[in-house]
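FW: tagging you since you asked about this chain on Friday. Here's the raw sequence from the shared folder, copied in full. Didn't touch anything.
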Amino acid sequence: METTIEPTNEANEDHIRHRAYMLWLEEGQPDGRAEEHWHLARSVAEAREDMPDAVTVSKEKQNNDSGFRAGWRPDFSNLTV
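HL: got it, structure written out here
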């Protein structure tokens, strides 16, 4: 049985390496978790590859006053803590 592995471009590999390093730092530099950080960073990179580069919103939705608008802020003044 032959296994083929698609070549990973160097920029993607550098991104994964950097993200794995950042995860390691964020978790307090634990010993023995390099593989876990690598797999997590790689999973995130692969998920991003599957995402569309941009989302198109129709003019109708952009002009719809029932949705969120730029500059809109929620009113939390009536909330108690």
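FW: The mean pLDDT is 77.
HL: agreed, and Residues 63 and 69 are 9 Å apart (CA to CA).
FW: great, closing this out.
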